[in-house]
Design brief:
The complex is a heterodimer of chains A (about 260) and B (about 280). Chain A is α/β, with parallel strands linked by helices and about 260 residues long. Chain A has 10 helices and 10 strands. Chain A has a 6-stranded mixed sheet with strand order 6-7-8-3-9-10, with helices on both faces. Chain B has 11 helices and 2 strands. Classes of the chains: A alpha/beta (about 260), B mainly alpha (about 280).
Chain lengths: ~260, ~280
Amino acid sequence: MPRLTASALTASAHGWTPDQPIISIRDVHKSFGSIEVLRGISFDVRKGEVVCIIGPSGSGKSTLLRCINALVPINKGSIKVEGQEVNDPALDKLELRKKVGMVFQSYNLFPHKTALENIMMAPVLVLKRPKDEVEAQARRLLKKVRLEGKENAYPGELSGGQQQRVAIARSLAMNPDVMLFDEVTAALDPETVKEVLVTIRELAEEGMTCILVTHEMGFAREVSDHVYFTDRGVIVEHGPPATFFKEASDPRTREFLSQIL
Amino acid sequence: MRAELIPAPAQGETGFTAAAFNRRAFACVIAAFLLVVVASEAVAQIRTTGGSQGIIDALIKWAPLILLGPPGEFGGFALNIAVSFLAMAIGTAAGLAVGLGQISLYPPVRAVSWAVTQFFRNSPWLVLLFFVMLLVPFQLKIGGISIPLPGWLKATFGLALPIMANMSEIVRGAVNSIPTSQWESAESLAFTRMQTLWRIILPQCVKRMIPPWMNWYAILTMTTPLISIVGVNDAMTLTQDALAAEQKTELLMPMYGMLLVFFFIYCYPIARWTIYLERKYAVKI
C-alpha cells in the first residue's frame, strides 16, 4: 500500500500514525454573526471508515464539512486531520486541502473546461505532476465513474448526475486520504441519484475514508459504518446504522426519521 | 379568443442573424451619408449661388488630407484610430490591474484602487486631457537619454485614464458575477488565490467583459477629436485647417458633416456588433 506509506510519512511530522483516528473533532463551535451553527461537536473518523451525518436543514452539517478542510474557520475547539490541527493560524491550508477532497451539492465544475481538463487542472497546477501521467490517471478515473467517451464534453453538455461524477473524479485525481461529500445527490433527478451513489459505494468499498452529509437514508444505512444525527448544532444521537435506524431513542431523531423514511 | 391562440415569438426569434445585422448596418450607413449630403447641399444652395458642384469638389479635394493627414506625415482620421487603439490598450491593461486591485485581500490596495477608479470615472475627459498635457513633461530623461513625448502620445495617456477607470469597474463587476461556489471548489482543490483568479475566474469573465469593453472602445473613438484642442493633427484639426484655407462659410456644414460620417461609418458597426455579442453571451438564467 504505497499511498498509506506516503501519507504516514507526511503525517509523521504531526505525530500521527494510521492506527489513530484520521480525523478527530473536539468541541467545535462556529457562529455566523449571532447565529451559533455548531455548538460543541465531537467525533472521530478512522481510516477507511464511512461516516454519514444526517439531520434537518440548518443543523450545521454542511458547515461542519467546510470546517474540516478549512473553507470555514472555526471559533473554538479542535479539528485534527492526520494529526494536523486545522484550528491553527499557522495552518498550511493548501497542504491540508491536498489530503481532503470535497464534492459539492451543485457540482461546481469549471464551465470553461472539458471533463478531462476539469480533472487534470488541480494535479497539474497544484501538485505540479507531469501532464501525460495526470492525463492517463484522468482517463482512468473517467472510466471508473462510467463516463468513458465524455472526456471532451463541457459541463454544460452533461446531465447533473454526469457532472457530479466528473466532480468526484476531479477530487479523486488529487489522491486524497479523505473525501467529504456535501449532499451530493440533493440537486439530482431521482433517476440519476443512483448512478452517483453507486460511484460513492465503490469508493467506500475500496477503503476510501468518506464523510457524507446526506438525506439518502437508505444509502446511509447501506454504506456507512457510523451515523451521526445532528440538530441545532449538536450531535443528538449516533451509532452504527443497524442500531441507529432501528433503536433511535431521542424524540428528535425519531421525529426526523419518521418524516424522512 | 383567437388572439390567445397566436403564440408569442420565442426569445431567440426576436434576435437577428449576422446577415440581417450586416444588411441593416449597411443600410444605416448609406442613409446617414445621403442625409448629410442632401442636408448640406440644401443649406449651401440657399446661402450661395455657386451650386453643389463646388461643395462636392471641395469635399473630394480635402477628404484624403482629413482621412490620412498631410503627405509624408501621420495624422487625420488614421491618427484618431491609432490614438483610440493605443489608449484602449493602455487603459485596458491598467484597468485590469486596478480592477483586480479593487478585489484584493489587502485593504490598502483595495482602498487605493477604489479611489483611483472613482476619481477617473467621475472626471470630465476634457479636463483630464488638459491636466495630462500640462502635468507630463514634453520629454523624459532616463539616465543620459531623453525620450521626447509628443503631444499625441500625452493626449493618448490622458484618454487612457477614464478608460482605465471604467475597465476597472467592468473587471470588478465581472469577477463578482462569478458564483462564489467556483471559488469554493477551486479552494477545496488547493488552488491558490492567484491560480483561482487567473485559471478559473478570469477566463469565465472574458465573455461577460467583451460587450461593455467594445462599448467603451466606441465611446473612446468618438471622444478622440478632443485631442485637437491640444494641438494634434487629428481629423478634427485638419478639417478646421481645410475650412480656414477655403474661407467659405457654405463649406462649414458639408465638411463637418463629412467628418461625422467618417466617425459614424467606423463606430456604428462596432455598436451593432456589440449588441450582437451581448445577446450571444447573455447570461442564461
